[in-house]
Design goal:
alpha+beta; Cytochrome p450; five-stranded mixed β-sheet; three-stranded antiparallel β-sheet; about 10% strand; disordered N terminus
Protein backbone atom coordinates (compact mmCIF):
# COMPACT_ATOMS: atom_id res chain seq x y z
CA UNK A 1 0.00 0.00 0.00
CA UNK A 2 1.44 3.36 -1.02
CA UNK A 3 2.68 5.82 1.56
CA UNK A 4 1.32 9.33 1.02
CA UNK A 5 2.88 12.72 1.78
CA UNK A 6 1.18 14.39 4.73
CA UNK A 7 3.06 17.66 5.21
CA UNK A 8 3.29 18.64 8.85
CA UNK A 9 0.06 16.95 9.97
CA UNK A 10 0.41 14.40 12.79
CA UNK A 11 -0.37 10.72 12.42
CA UNK A 12 -3.88 9.80 13.54
CA UNK A 13 -5.34 6.38 14.35
CA UNK A 14 -9.05 6.62 15.22
CA UNK A 15 -9.34 2.82 15.33
CA UNK A 16 -7.94 2.62 18.87
CA UNK A 17 -10.55 1.18 21.22
CA UNK A 18 -9.71 3.53 24.11
CA UNK A 19 -10.94 6.48 22.04
CA UNK A 20 -14.38 4.88 22.02
CA UNK A 21 -14.58 3.73 25.64
CA UNK A 22 -13.57 7.23 26.82
CA UNK A 23 -15.60 9.03 24.12
CA UNK A 24 -12.60 11.15 23.17
CA UNK A 25 -13.18 10.54 19.48
CA UNK A 26 -15.09 13.82 18.83
CA UNK A 27 -12.00 15.91 19.60
CA UNK A 28 -9.80 13.60 17.53
CA UNK A 29 -12.03 13.89 14.46
CA UNK A 30 -12.27 17.66 14.89
CA UNK A 31 -8.48 17.74 14.71
CA UNK A 32 -8.40 15.40 11.72
CA UNK A 33 -10.96 17.41 9.75
CA UNK A 34 -8.87 20.53 10.33
CA UNK A 35 -5.39 19.10 9.77
CA UNK A 36 -5.82 16.23 7.30
CA UNK A 37 -9.42 15.34 6.33
CA UNK A 38 -8.34 12.41 4.15
CA UNK A 39 -5.72 10.80 6.35
CA UNK A 40 -3.49 7.79 5.77
CA UNK A 41 -2.61 5.65 8.80
CA UNK A 42 0.26 3.38 7.73
CA UNK A 43 0.12 1.11 10.76
CA UNK A 44 -2.61 0.09 13.23
CA UNK A 45 -4.07 -3.02 14.87
CA UNK A 46 -6.14 -3.33 11.69
CA UNK A 47 -3.33 -2.63 9.25
CA UNK A 48 -2.94 0.41 7.01
CA UNK A 49 -6.01 2.42 6.05
CA UNK A 50 -7.32 5.75 4.82
CA UNK A 51 -9.72 7.78 6.98
CA UNK A 52 -12.38 9.84 5.19
CA UNK A 53 -13.69 12.30 7.78
CA UNK A 54 -15.60 14.92 5.76
CA UNK A 55 -19.26 14.66 4.80
CA UNK A 56 -18.93 15.34 1.08
CA UNK A 57 -15.89 13.07 0.70
CA UNK A 58 -17.85 10.17 2.15
CA UNK A 59 -20.76 10.87 -0.18
CA UNK A 60 -18.35 10.84 -3.11
CA UNK A 61 -16.83 7.52 -2.07
CA UNK A 62 -20.23 5.90 -1.48
CA UNK A 63 -21.52 7.08 -4.85
CA UNK A 64 -18.75 5.17 -6.68
CA UNK A 65 -19.35 1.46 -5.89
CA UNK A 66 -17.48 0.39 -9.03
CA UNK A 67 -14.33 2.03 -7.67
CA UNK A 68 -14.82 1.57 -3.93
CA UNK A 69 -15.98 -2.00 -3.33
CA UNK A 70 -18.00 -3.33 -0.40
CA UNK A 71 -17.39 -6.94 -1.35
CA UNK A 72 -16.68 -9.62 1.23
CA UNK A 73 -13.96 -10.78 -1.16
CA UNK A 74 -11.97 -7.72 -0.01
CA UNK A 75 -12.94 -8.30 3.66
CA UNK A 76 -16.22 -6.39 3.43
CA UNK A 77 -17.52 -3.37 5.28
CA UNK A 78 -15.55 -3.02 8.53
CA UNK A 79 -12.03 -1.86 9.24
CA UNK A 80 -11.10 -5.39 10.34
CA UNK A 81 -9.74 -7.72 7.66
CA UNK A 82 -10.71 -11.37 7.79
CA UNK A 83 -8.16 -13.19 9.97
CA UNK A 84 -5.54 -15.15 8.05
CA UNK A 85 -6.81 -18.28 9.78
CA UNK A 86 -10.21 -17.84 8.12
CA UNK A 87 -10.12 -19.50 4.72
CA UNK A 88 -12.30 -18.41 1.78
CA UNK A 89 -14.62 -21.37 2.35
CA UNK A 90 -15.34 -20.11 5.88
CA UNK A 91 -16.21 -16.52 4.99
CA UNK A 92 -19.80 -15.39 5.35
CA UNK A 93 -21.05 -13.16 2.50
CA UNK A 94 -23.97 -10.82 3.13
CA UNK A 95 -25.72 -8.53 0.69
CA UNK A 96 -24.37 -5.33 2.26
CA UNK A 97 -20.90 -6.79 1.57
CA UNK A 98 -21.63 -7.41 -2.09
CA UNK A 99 -21.36 -5.21 -5.15
CA UNK A 100 -23.92 -5.02 -7.96
CA UNK A 101 -25.26 -7.08 -9.61
CA UNK A 102 -25.21 -9.70 -6.79
CA UNK A 103 -26.22 -7.13 -4.16
CA UNK A 104 -29.41 -5.89 -5.84
CA UNK A 105 -31.76 -8.92 -5.92
CA UNK A 106 -30.96 -9.92 -2.33
CA UNK A 107 -31.64 -6.42 -1.03
CA UNK A 108 -34.91 -6.36 -2.98
CA UNK A 109 -36.00 -9.57 -1.26
CA UNK A 110 -36.15 -8.07 2.23
CA UNK A 111 -36.87 -4.42 1.40
CA UNK A 112 -40.69 -4.87 1.09
CA UNK A 113 -40.75 -5.54 4.83
CA UNK A 114 -39.61 -1.95 5.40
CA UNK A 115 -41.89 -0.01 3.07
CA UNK A 116 -44.26 2.70 4.41
CA UNK A 117 -47.15 0.23 4.26
CA UNK A 118 -45.09 -2.33 6.12
CA UNK A 119 -44.29 0.24 8.79
CA UNK A 120 -47.93 1.22 9.14
CA UNK A 121 -48.86 -2.42 9.73
CA UNK A 122 -46.26 -2.79 12.50
CA UNK A 123 -46.81 0.57 14.21
CA UNK A 124 -49.71 -0.35 16.57
CA UNK A 125 -47.91 -3.40 17.93
CA UNK A 126 -44.64 -1.51 18.45
CA UNK A 127 -46.48 1.26 20.26
CA UNK A 128 -48.35 -1.14 22.53
CA UNK A 129 -45.18 -3.05 23.44
CA UNK A 130 -43.29 0.19 24.09
CA UNK A 131 -46.05 1.53 26.33
CA UNK A 132 -46.23 -1.72 28.31
CA UNK A 133 -42.49 -1.74 28.89
CA UNK A 134 -42.35 1.91 29.98
CA UNK A 135 -45.17 1.33 32.47
CA UNK A 136 -43.13 -1.48 34.04
CA UNK A 137 -40.07 0.66 34.83
CA UNK A 138 -39.27 1.56 38.45
CA UNK A 139 -39.52 5.17 39.58
CA UNK A 140 -37.01 6.85 41.84
CA UNK A 141 -34.44 4.05 41.95
CA UNK A 142 -31.62 3.23 39.52
CA UNK A 143 -31.90 0.63 36.78
CA UNK A 144 -29.95 -0.22 33.64
CA UNK A 145 -31.62 1.52 30.70
CA UNK A 146 -29.59 -0.53 28.19
CA UNK A 147 -30.86 -3.86 29.48
CA UNK A 148 -34.38 -2.93 30.57
CA UNK A 149 -35.33 -0.74 27.61
CA UNK A 150 -32.88 -0.55 24.69
CA UNK A 151 -32.01 -4.25 24.44
CA UNK A 152 -35.51 -5.45 25.28
CA UNK A 153 -37.35 -3.29 22.75
CA UNK A 154 -34.97 -4.02 19.89
CA UNK A 155 -34.79 -7.73 20.66
CA UNK A 156 -38.59 -7.92 20.74
CA UNK A 157 -38.64 -6.25 17.33
CA UNK A 158 -36.12 -8.70 15.88
CA UNK A 159 -38.07 -11.65 17.25
CA UNK A 160 -41.20 -10.35 15.51
CA UNK A 161 -39.36 -9.74 12.21
CA UNK A 162 -38.04 -13.31 12.14
CA UNK A 163 -41.02 -14.92 13.90
CA UNK A 164 -38.38 -16.14 16.34
CA UNK A 165 -39.25 -18.21 19.45
CA UNK A 166 -40.25 -15.51 21.92
CA UNK A 167 -38.88 -17.10 25.08
CA UNK A 168 -35.46 -17.45 23.43
CA UNK A 169 -35.25 -13.95 21.97
CA UNK A 170 -32.20 -12.92 24.05
CA UNK A 171 -30.17 -15.33 21.94
CA UNK A 172 -30.49 -12.67 19.25
CA UNK A 173 -28.77 -10.13 21.52
CA UNK A 174 -25.95 -12.56 22.29
CA UNK A 175 -25.40 -13.37 18.61
CA UNK A 176 -25.56 -9.72 17.63
CA UNK A 177 -22.89 -8.76 20.16
CA UNK A 178 -20.53 -11.36 18.77
CA UNK A 179 -21.37 -10.60 15.14
CA UNK A 180 -20.52 -6.90 15.52
CA UNK A 181 -17.29 -7.53 17.45
CA UNK A 182 -14.60 -6.40 14.99
CA UNK A 183 -11.95 -6.75 17.71
CA UNK A 184 -12.39 -10.53 17.56
CA UNK A 185 -10.38 -10.43 14.34
CA UNK A 186 -7.32 -9.27 16.29
CA UNK A 187 -6.98 -12.47 18.33
CA UNK A 188 -6.99 -15.99 16.83
CA UNK A 189 -8.83 -17.50 19.79
CA UNK A 190 -11.51 -14.79 19.77
CA UNK A 191 -11.84 -15.13 16.00
CA UNK A 192 -12.37 -18.87 16.39
CA UNK A 193 -14.91 -18.34 19.18
CA UNK A 194 -16.77 -15.78 17.08
CA UNK A 195 -16.90 -18.23 14.17
CA UNK A 196 -18.26 -20.95 16.46
CA UNK A 197 -20.97 -18.62 17.79
CA UNK A 198 -21.94 -17.65 14.24
CA UNK A 199 -22.27 -21.31 13.24
CA UNK A 200 -24.32 -21.94 16.38
CA UNK A 201 -26.63 -19.15 15.23
CA UNK A 202 -26.73 -20.63 11.74
CA UNK A 203 -27.72 -24.06 13.05
CA UNK A 204 -30.54 -22.58 15.13
CA UNK A 205 -31.89 -20.62 12.16
CA UNK A 206 -31.47 -23.62 9.85
CA UNK A 207 -33.90 -25.48 12.09
CA UNK A 208 -36.25 -22.50 11.99
CA UNK A 209 -35.91 -22.41 8.19
CA UNK A 210 -36.87 -26.08 7.84
CA UNK A 211 -39.82 -25.66 10.18
CA UNK A 212 -41.12 -22.70 8.21
CA UNK A 213 -40.96 -24.63 4.95
CA UNK A 214 -43.96 -26.60 6.22
CA UNK A 215 -45.97 -23.49 7.12
CA UNK A 216 -48.40 -21.79 4.78
CA UNK A 217 -48.29 -18.02 4.34
CA UNK A 218 -46.36 -15.71 6.63
CA UNK A 219 -44.55 -12.45 5.96
CA UNK A 220 -41.58 -12.72 8.32
CA UNK A 221 -38.08 -12.30 6.92
CA UNK A 222 -37.38 -16.03 6.67
CA UNK A 223 -40.58 -16.68 4.69
CA UNK A 224 -39.67 -13.77 2.42
CA UNK A 225 -36.25 -15.32 1.79
CA UNK A 226 -37.83 -18.71 1.08
CA UNK A 227 -40.07 -17.18 -1.59
CA UNK A 228 -37.15 -15.38 -3.28
CA UNK A 229 -35.26 -16.83 -6.24
CA UNK A 230 -32.08 -15.07 -5.15
CA UNK A 231 -32.17 -16.22 -1.51
CA UNK A 232 -34.20 -19.44 -1.33
CA UNK A 233 -31.17 -21.64 -2.04
CA UNK A 234 -28.36 -19.68 -0.43
CA UNK A 235 -25.21 -21.57 0.58
CA UNK A 236 -24.91 -22.02 4.34
CA UNK A 237 -22.24 -19.33 4.71
CA UNK A 238 -24.30 -16.75 2.80
CA UNK A 239 -27.36 -17.61 4.87
CA UNK A 240 -25.37 -16.99 8.05
CA UNK A 241 -23.87 -13.81 6.60
CA UNK A 242 -27.27 -12.34 5.81
CA UNK A 243 -28.54 -13.28 9.27
CA UNK A 244 -25.58 -11.39 10.76
CA UNK A 245 -26.47 -8.35 8.67
CA UNK A 246 -30.16 -8.34 9.59
CA UNK A 247 -29.58 -9.05 13.27
CA UNK A 248 -26.81 -6.48 13.80
CA UNK A 249 -28.63 -3.94 11.64
CA UNK A 250 -31.86 -4.41 13.55
CA UNK A 251 -30.37 -4.70 17.02
CA UNK A 252 -27.13 -2.83 17.70
CA UNK A 253 -27.98 0.31 15.77
CA UNK A 254 -31.45 1.03 17.15
CA UNK A 255 -30.56 -0.15 20.64
CA UNK A 256 -27.63 2.27 20.91
CA UNK A 257 -29.70 5.17 19.62
CA UNK A 258 -32.30 4.32 22.27
CA UNK A 259 -29.61 4.59 24.93
CA UNK A 260 -28.61 7.87 23.33
CA UNK A 261 -32.02 9.18 24.48
CA UNK A 262 -30.98 8.72 28.09
CA UNK A 263 -27.70 10.49 27.40
CA UNK A 264 -29.24 13.54 25.72
CA UNK A 265 -31.89 13.93 28.43
CA UNK A 266 -29.09 14.26 30.99
CA UNK A 267 -26.69 16.30 28.87
CA UNK A 268 -29.18 18.64 27.19
CA UNK A 269 -32.20 19.06 29.49
CA UNK A 270 -33.13 22.47 28.07
CA UNK A 271 -33.15 21.08 24.54
CA UNK A 272 -35.25 18.07 25.60
CA UNK A 273 -37.72 20.49 27.25
CA UNK A 274 -38.50 21.87 23.77
CA UNK A 275 -40.32 18.59 23.08
CA UNK A 276 -42.68 18.92 26.04
CA UNK A 277 -46.29 19.00 24.91
CA UNK A 278 -45.51 17.47 21.52
CA UNK A 279 -47.92 14.65 20.63
CA UNK A 280 -47.93 11.71 18.24
CA UNK A 281 -47.01 12.68 14.70
CA UNK A 282 -45.27 15.87 15.78
CA UNK A 283 -42.83 17.22 13.21
CA UNK A 284 -40.53 18.36 15.99
CA UNK A 285 -40.36 14.85 17.47
CA UNK A 286 -39.63 13.35 14.06
CA UNK A 287 -36.88 15.91 13.52
CA UNK A 288 -35.56 15.19 17.03
CA UNK A 289 -35.22 11.53 16.04
CA UNK A 290 -33.10 12.45 13.03
CA UNK A 291 -30.98 14.64 15.29
CA UNK A 292 -30.66 11.78 17.80
CA UNK A 293 -29.45 9.43 15.07
CA UNK A 294 -26.98 12.08 13.86
CA UNK A 295 -25.69 12.77 17.37
CA UNK A 296 -25.35 9.12 18.36
CA UNK A 297 -24.31 7.67 14.95
CA UNK A 298 -24.57 4.06 16.17
CA UNK A 299 -22.27 2.60 13.51
CA UNK A 300 -19.06 4.62 13.66
CA UNK A 301 -17.84 3.67 10.22
CA UNK A 302 -18.16 1.64 7.07
CA UNK A 303 -15.23 0.47 5.00
CA UNK A 304 -14.61 0.24 1.27
CA UNK A 305 -11.68 -1.18 -0.69
CA UNK A 306 -10.42 0.63 -3.78
CA UNK A 307 -10.36 -1.63 -6.84
CA UNK A 308 -8.61 0.98 -8.97
CA UNK A 309 -6.59 4.13 -8.37
CA UNK A 310 -8.59 7.24 -7.49
CA UNK A 311 -7.64 10.82 -6.70
CA UNK A 312 -9.40 12.54 -3.81
CA UNK A 313 -8.33 15.79 -2.12
CA UNK A 314 -5.16 15.80 -4.20
CA UNK A 315 -4.11 12.38 -2.89
CA UNK A 316 -3.85 9.13 -4.77
CA UNK A 317 -5.78 6.23 -3.27
CA UNK A 318 -4.28 3.10 -4.78
CA UNK A 319 -6.05 -0.05 -5.90
CA UNK A 320 -6.17 -2.39 -2.90
CA UNK A 321 -6.18 0.41 -0.32
CA UNK A 322 -8.62 0.18 2.58
CA UNK A 323 -10.80 3.31 2.93
CA UNK A 324 -12.69 3.84 6.19
CA UNK A 325 -15.62 6.27 6.04
CA UNK A 326 -16.10 7.69 9.53
CA UNK A 327 -19.82 8.48 9.75
CA UNK A 328 -19.37 9.79 13.29
CA UNK A 329 -17.05 12.46 11.90
CA UNK A 330 -19.20 13.34 8.89
CA UNK A 331 -22.16 13.86 11.23
CA UNK A 332 -20.16 16.52 13.07
CA UNK A 333 -18.59 18.12 10.00
CA UNK A 334 -18.52 21.87 10.66
CA UNK A 335 -19.28 22.58 6.99
CA UNK A 336 -22.65 20.82 7.35
CA UNK A 337 -23.63 20.77 11.04
CA UNK A 338 -22.87 23.81 13.17
CA UNK A 339 -21.97 22.96 16.78
CA UNK A 340 -22.21 19.31 15.83
CA UNK A 341 -21.46 17.84 19.26
CA UNK A 342 -24.63 19.45 20.59
CA UNK A 343 -28.03 17.77 20.32
CA UNK A 344 -30.71 20.20 19.14
CA UNK A 345 -34.17 18.79 18.31
CA UNK A 346 -34.97 21.76 16.08
CA UNK A 347 -31.77 21.56 14.01
CA UNK A 348 -32.92 22.55 10.53
CA UNK A 349 -30.81 20.07 8.56
CA UNK A 350 -30.88 17.08 10.94
CA UNK A 351 -32.28 14.90 8.16
CA UNK A 352 -29.00 15.20 6.29
CA UNK A 353 -27.35 12.85 8.80
CA UNK A 354 -25.28 10.07 7.25
CA UNK A 355 -25.70 7.46 9.99
CA UNK A 356 -27.64 5.19 7.63
CA UNK A 357 -25.05 5.51 4.88
CA UNK A 358 -25.50 6.88 1.39
CA UNK A 359 -26.16 5.44 -2.05
CA UNK A 360 -26.94 1.83 -2.91
CA UNK A 361 -26.01 0.51 0.53
CA UNK A 362 -28.12 2.93 2.57
CA UNK A 363 -29.64 1.01 5.49
CA UNK A 364 -32.64 -0.99 4.28
CA UNK A 365 -34.25 -0.82 7.74
CA UNK A 366 -33.86 2.93 8.24
CA UNK A 367 -37.63 3.56 8.33
CA UNK A 368 -38.14 0.92 11.01
CA UNK A 369 -35.37 2.38 13.19
CA UNK A 370 -36.86 5.86 12.81
CA UNK A 371 -40.33 4.59 13.73
CA UNK A 372 -39.12 2.69 16.81
CA UNK A 373 -37.26 5.75 18.09
CA UNK A 374 -40.15 8.08 17.31
CA UNK A 375 -42.61 5.88 19.20
CA UNK A 376 -40.28 5.57 22.19
CA UNK A 377 -39.86 9.36 22.46
CA UNK A 378 -43.59 9.97 21.96
CA UNK A 379 -44.52 7.46 24.66
CA UNK A 380 -41.93 8.92 27.05
CA UNK A 381 -43.31 12.41 26.47
CA UNK A 382 -46.85 11.15 26.99
CA UNK A 383 -45.81 9.96 30.46
CA UNK A 384 -43.69 13.05 31.15
CA UNK A 385 -40.76 10.77 31.91
CA UNK A 386 -37.45 12.23 32.97
CA UNK A 387 -34.19 10.29 33.01
CA UNK A 388 -31.09 11.17 34.98
CA UNK A 389 -27.97 9.23 34.05
CA UNK A 390 -26.19 7.86 37.09
CA UNK A 391 -22.60 8.46 36.03
CA UNK A 392 -20.90 7.60 32.77
CA UNK A 393 -22.01 4.59 30.74
CA UNK A 394 -20.01 1.47 30.08
CA UNK A 395 -19.23 1.90 26.40
CA UNK A 396 -18.46 -0.69 23.74
CA UNK A 397 -14.70 -0.96 23.10
CA UNK A 398 -15.01 -0.87 19.34
CA UNK A 399 -14.31 1.52 16.47
CA UNK A 400 -17.31 0.00 14.65
CA UNK A 401 -20.23 -0.16 17.11
CA UNK A 402 -20.54 3.26 18.75
CA UNK A 403 -22.61 1.97 21.61
CA UNK A 404 -23.20 1.04 25.21
CA UNK A 405 -23.06 -2.05 27.40
CA UNK A 406 -24.63 -0.37 30.42
CA UNK A 407 -26.17 2.96 31.46
CA UNK A 408 -27.69 3.29 34.91
CA UNK A 409 -30.50 5.83 35.11
CA UNK A 410 -33.10 7.05 37.58
CA UNK A 411 -36.54 7.73 36.13
CA UNK A 412 -39.09 10.19 37.51
CA UNK A 413 -42.38 11.59 36.28
CA UNK A 414 -43.69 15.09 36.77
Amino acid sequence: MATQPRGDSPLFDPSQSELWTSRSWPDLFTAMRAADPLHYTPQSHYGAYWSATKYKDIQEIESLPKIFSSSWQYSGITIADAPEEIQDEDRMPMFIAMDPPEHTPQRRTVSPKFTPSGMAAMEPDIRQRTATLLESLPQGRPFDWVDRVAIELTTQMLALLFDFPWEQRRKLTYWSDWAGNVNAALDPESAKQRMNVMYEMGMFFAGLWEMKKTQEGGDDLIKMMQRSESMAHMPERMFIGNLILLIVGGNDTTRNSMTGIARIMSLFPAEWAKLKGEGEGSRLVKNAVQELIRWQTPLAHMRRTAVEDYDLRGKRIRAGDKVVMWYVSANRDEDIFEDGDRWMPDRENARRQLAFGYGIHRCVGARLAEMQLTILIEEMLKRDMRLLCEGEPERVASPFINGYHKQMVTMTRS
